Amino acid sequence: MNNDSAVLAAGCVLWRRSPSGHGIELALVHRPKWDDWSHPKGKLKRGEEARQGAVREVLEETGMTCDLGTELPTAFYQVEGRPKEVRYWAAEATGGRFEPNREVDRLLWLPPAAARDRLTQPRDRLLIDALLDALHSA
Fold first, then answer.
1. What CATH number was assigned to the domain covering residues 7-137?
2. Is the model's pLDDT at 80 over the cut of 70?
3. Bridge partners (DSSP) listed for residue 36
4. Residue boundaries of the structural domains of the chain
5. Distance CA 117, CA 51 (A)
6. Cα–Cα distance between 63 and 56 in angstroms, integer?
7. Which residue in 26, 32, 64, 111 is a FRET match for 57, CA 20 to 30 A apart?
8. What angle do CA 79, 109, 16 make, to 5 degrees?
């Protein structure tokens, strides 16, 4: 893909240990503009490194700070006729609090199977599998 014309973005599959003590939960965000459920992500600012952008987008969209882990598969798709490239990382939530905002009006913490069912785009489900593989091999 020609990166000169591609929209570059970054995001995270944000996770935390379940408050019940059993397994993990994943953060999904609802974006009213698209009426979809997705992983937190967004366009990179000019000159911004993808890792920095991923952490910034998680903070902006979820209110959470995080520790980046393994890089997950990059997503490639078209948006309004332009190629988009989104780099993702596994990220453990380390603190913070969600406040609804213009871009994201809801945040859900769900077990992986429920998160997979809630995601709007099938390509986002593959990232859950990649996260679980990364956590199991860590």
1. 3.90.79.10
2. yes
3. 31
4. 7-137
5. 27
6. 10
7. 111
8. 105
